[in-house]
Write a structure and sequence with these properties.
This protein is 44% helix and 19% strand. By secondary structure, the protein is of the alpha/beta class. The chain folds into two domains: 148 residues, 3-Layer(aba) Sandwich (Rossmann fold); 165 residues, Up-down Bundle (Dehydroquinate synthase-like, alpha domain), CATH 1.20.1090. The protein has a four-stranded parallel sheet, sandwiched between helices. A two-stranded parallel ribbon has the order 1-8. The protein has a two-stranded antiparallel ribbon with strand order 6-7. Strand 6 and strand 7 form a beta hairpin.
C-alpha cells in the first residue's frame, strides 16, 4: 500500500504501534534515517553502501548478520530508506531472514517512488547480471515523500523521469504529455505510483499483465551489463525503450515514426537516447536475462503508441535491426 507523506516525521504515525523497528539505509541519505529515528522508536540502524557492484549476496549476508547480532525477532519490521538498490537489498534481506519478516519501503529517489520500491520485487545481482537472485516479498507500505527529493542530484531526477515516462507510455498518454511539459510534480509522482500499484495488485507474481512494466528493461539490462556502471538504470531504460520501439517498427507492431518521436521526447527530458552498443553485443546479455524461457525466447514489451503496448515472444538471436 502506497502512502503519501507531507513530512518525514509523519512516518512515526504509521509505525506508532511497532516495537521492533530496524532501519536499513543508504549512507548517502543518513539524514533521512536520522529524521525517521526522531519520530518513532527504533531498535537498530544498519547503514549500507550502494552501487550495482555492491548489490550482491555479500551485502545481503552482511545485513542478515547485523540483524542476528541485534537479536531481531520474527516480529521485527524493516524500513528500507534509499533508492531502488537499497529497497531491493533490504526487501530481499527481509524476505529470507528467519524465513521472512515484514518490511516497508521509504524510497528517497524519484525512480524508487514511481517504480523500484513498489510491487515487492526484491533481489541482488550476480556476476553483473541484474536481479538474478531474489524473491517477491511485498512491503506492508511504501512511503512517498516529496521532501526527500530535495537533495537528489539532477542526474538521478532525470533517471527517475525515465521510469515515470515508461509508466505513462504504457497506460496514460495525457499524463505522458503532461510529464514531458511539467516534469516530476507531486501529482504525477502519485499518479505513476498508483498505476504501478494497480498493475501489481492485479498480477502480483508477474504471470501476465505485470510483465508490461518491463518495457525497455530487456534491452536496458543488457545495456547496463555492457556499460559496467557508467550509466544509471533510468538512462539504460530510456535507451531500451527507444530500442523496443525500433524493434516494434521493424516487425510492424509499433506505429510508424514512434522511434524518432520517443527519441525527441526523451532528449527533451534530458535523457540519453543513442545506444553505443551493437545488437550483437547486447544479444548475449539478453539471452541470460532472467525472463528468458527454456526455448531461449524472451517476452519483449513493444510500445505500439503512447498509452498502448503489446507483448512479443522472440529469441534475441533472431533480432536483426540497427541499434544506432
Amino acid at each position: 500500500m502506497t502512502k503519501e507523506l507531507v513530512h518525514i516525521a509523519d512516518i512515526g504515525l504509521s509505525l506508532k504501534d511497532e516495537r521492533e523497528i530496524f532501519l536499513i539505509h543508504d549512507r548517502n541519505v543518513a539524514w533521512v534515517a536520522e529524521e525517521v529515528a526522531k519520530s518513532t522508536s527504533v531498535k537498530g540502524v544498519i547503514s549500507i553502501d550502494t552501487s550495482e557492484e555492491l548489490k550482491t549476496l555479500e551485502t545481503v549476508e552482511a545485513i542478515e548478520r547485523q540483524l542476528i547480532e541485534a537479536e531481531a525477532s520474527r516480529s521485527a519490521i524493516i524500513i528500507a530508506i534509499g533508492g531502488g538498490i537499497t529497497t531491493d537489498l533490504a526487501g530481499f534481506a527481509a524476505a529470507i531472514y528467519k524465513r521472512g519478516i515484514r518490511w516497508c519501503a521509504f524510497p528517497t529517489t524519484l525512480l524508487g517512488q514511481v517504480d523500484a520500491a513498489i510491487g515487492g520485487k526484491t533481489g541482488a545481482n550476480l556476476d553483473g547480471y541484474k536481479n538474478m537472485i531474489g524473491a517477491f516479498h511485498m512491503p506492508e507500505s511504501t512511503f512517498i515523500c516529496a521532501e526527500v527529493l530535495k537533495t537528489l542530484p539532477e542526474r538521478q531526477l532525470k533517471s527517475g523521469m525515465a521510469e515515470m515516462l515508461k509508466t505513462f507510455l504504457l497506460a496514460d498518454e495525457k499524463a505522458y504529455l503532461k510529464a514531458l511539459e511539467d516534469g516530476p510534480t507531486q501529482e504525477l509522482i502519485a499518479k505513476a505510483a498508483a498505476i504501478k500499484e494497480a498493475v501489481v495488485e492485479r498480477d502480483p507474481f508477474e504471470k501476465g499483465e505485470r510483465a508490461c512494466l518491463n518495457l525497455g528493461h530487456t534491452f536496458g539490462h543488457a545495456i547496463e551489463h555492457e556499460a559496467r556502471g557508467s550509466i544509471t538504470h533510468g538512462e539504460a531504460v530510456a535507451m531500451g525503450i527507444v530500442l523496443a520501439a525500433r524493434l516494434g517498427e521493424s516487425i510492424g507492431m509499433s506505429e510508424k515514426g514512434l522511434t524518432e518521436r520517443l527519441k525527441a521526447d526523451f532528449a527533451k527530458a534530458g535523457l540519453p537516447v543513442e545506444c553505443h552498443y551493437s545488437l550483437a553485443q547486447l544479444k548475449e546479455a539478453m539471452a541470460k536475462d532472467k525472463k528468458s524461457g527454456a526455448d531461449g525466447k524472451v517476452k519483449f514489451v513493444i510500445p505500439a503508441r503512447p498509452g498502448e503496448y503489446a507483448f512479443k515472444q522472440l529469441n534475441p538471436n533472431d533480432l536483426h535491426f540497427d541499434t544506432k
